[in-house]
Write a structure and sequence with these properties.
Pfam family, one: DUF3048_C
Organism: Metabacillus rhizolycopersici
CATH class of the largest domain: Alpha Beta
InterPro entries: DUF3048_C, DUF3048_N, YerB-like_sf
Strand content: 25-35%
Protein name: DUF3048 domain-containing protein
CATH topology of the largest domain: YerB-like fold
C-alpha cells in the first residue's frame, strides 16, 4: 500500500515482451502478433499534481494507471537495437552468463507497442521484479527461475508456452534473438490467466527542483561500465548539459529504439557492486541482491560514491543510513561484480 500523502488511482492495461534462447528455447515459429492497442500508464497523486511513481514526472493523463510489467530483454549484439527499451521507467543491466548482460525493463508510465527481443528468466531477475509486484515476461527460464515462477512468486507469461500466439518471431532476426511481444498480447495473456492488470505502486522518493539546484558531487560527464574485456560488453554513458540527460552506448553505438530511432534518455545511472558466483557449467550466475555494498550514483553530470541497500525488493541508494533521492526521469541500474574493475571515468 502507498504511504504518507501519496494516493493512487489505478485503472488498467499492460504490456511486455520476452524471448528465450540457447538451450532453454524450444519452438521457432514465425507468426507475428498484432500491435494496435496502446496500453495506458499508471499515475500517482501528490497534492494537486499527478506524477508517475517510478519516474517522478508529471502524468500526461493522471486518471490512467497500470500495474508494472517487467520484461527480460536481450542484449546480445545480434539483438541490437532493441524495441521499446527507451520507454522503460527502470532498467536493470545484469550479467546473465559469461560476459553477456540482459536487461530487466520495468514499464509503468510509458507502454510501447512492441518490446523485445525477449529472453529467458534468471532467478535474480525474478527477485528484482518482485520489488514492483510486476507481471514478469520472459521466453524460457533457468532451472532456479522455473522453480520460483512455478511456485507462484510472481505472475508471469513465458514464451515457451505462447510461441506463435502471444509471442511472435520477427523475420529480420534469427533465433534466439527474434522473440517479441505486444502490449495487446500482454493484456490478453494477463486476462486469460486471471492476473491483475492494475495495482498500487509504491513511489520512489524524488528530488525537488530546489534540491536539484543544490545537488552536490564530483563532475563526471562520461563514464564506462565494463562487463568484459571486449568492447562488445561495455556500457558507456555521456551527459548532455543542454538536454540535462544521459545517453547510453553499447560497443560505441548509441542505444536507440529499433522502430522509431528514439534514443534512451536517462536522469539517473546507479552502479552497484554485488557478489557474483557461478551456479553451473553453462555459466549461469548467482547474485547476492540482499547484503548491500558499494555504489556510485550519477545525476546531473555529478558523481556520488554511496552505498546500496535492498529495501522491499528494490535496490536503493543510501548515504549515512538515509535514502538518496532520484532526479525525476528514467533510471538505469548497472549491477557489477566489482566497481574498481568494471568502472572507468572518462570525463
Amino acid at each position: 500500500m502507498i504511504k504518507g500523502k501519496f494516493s493512487f488511482v489505478i485503472l488498467s492495461t499492460l504490456l511486455v515482451i520476452s524471448a528465450c534462447g540457447n538451450k532453454e528455447e524450444h519452438n521457432t515459429t514465425s507468426n507475428q502478433g498484432s500491435v494496435q492497442n496502446e496500453a495506458k500508464p499508471v499515475a500517482v497523486e501528490v497534492g494537486e499534481e499527478t506524477i508517475y511513481p517510478l519516474t517522478g514526472l508529471e502524468a500526461i493523463d493522471g486518471e490512467q494507471n497500470q500495474r508494472p510489467v517487467a520484461v527480460m530483454i536481450n542484449n546480445h549484439p545480434n539483438a541490437r537495437p532493441q524495441s521499446g527499451l527507451h520507454k522503460a521507467d527502470i532498467v536493470y543491466e545484469v550479467l546473465s552468463e559469461g560476459s553477456i548482460t540482459r536487461f530487466l525493463a520495468i514499464f509503468q508510465s510509458e507502454l510501447p507497442d512492441v518490446i523485445g527481443p525477449v529472453r529467458s528468466a534468471r532467478e535474480y531477475y525474478v527477485d528484482l521484479s518482485k520489488g514492483y509486484n510486476a507481471l514478469y515476461i520472459s521466453h524460457g527460464w533457468s532451472p532456479t527461475a522455473k522453480q520460483k515462477l512455478e511456485a507462484g512468486e510472481a505472475d508471469y507469461l513465458n514464451g515457451l508456452f505462447y510461441d506463435g500466439t502471444l509471442f511472435w518471431r520477427a523475420a529480420h532476426r534469427k533465433a534466439p534473438h527474434n522473440s517479441y511481444i505486444s502490449n495487446e498480447n500482454i493484456v490478453k495473456g494477463a486476462v486469460s490467466n486471471n492476473y491483475e492488470i492494475a495495482a498500487e505502486v509504491e513511489p520512489y522518493p524524488f528530488l525537488s527542483e530546489e534540491e536539484i539546484a543544490n545537488l552536490e558531487g564530483e563532475p563526471s560527464s562520461k563514464f564506462v561500465v565494463k562487463y568484459g574485456k571486449s568492447q562488445t560488453w561495455q556500457s558507456t554513458y555521456e551527459y548532455n548539459q543542454t538536454k540535462q540527460s544521459y545517453s547510453r552506448f553499447s560497443d560505441n553505438e548509441q542505444t536507440v529504439d529499433l522502430e522509431s530511432g528514439e534514443p534512451v534518455s536517462l536522469s539517473n545511472i546507479f552502479v552497484v557492486e554485488m557478489n557474483h558466483s557461478y551456479l553451473d557449467d553453462y555459466g549461469r550466475r548467482g547474485i547476492d541482491l540482499t547484503s548491500g555494498g558499494k555504489a556510485i550514483l550519477f545525476q546531473k553530470g555529478l558523481k556520488q560514491e554511496l552505498e546500496w541497500e535492498n529495501r522491499d525488493g528494490r535496490i536503493i541508494p543510501i548515504k549515512n543510513g538515509e535514502v538518496v533521492k532520484f532526479v525525476p526521469g528514467k533510471t538505469w541500474i548497472n549491477i557489477v561484480p566489482n566497481i574498481i574493475d568494471t568502472f572507468s571515468d572518462q570525463s
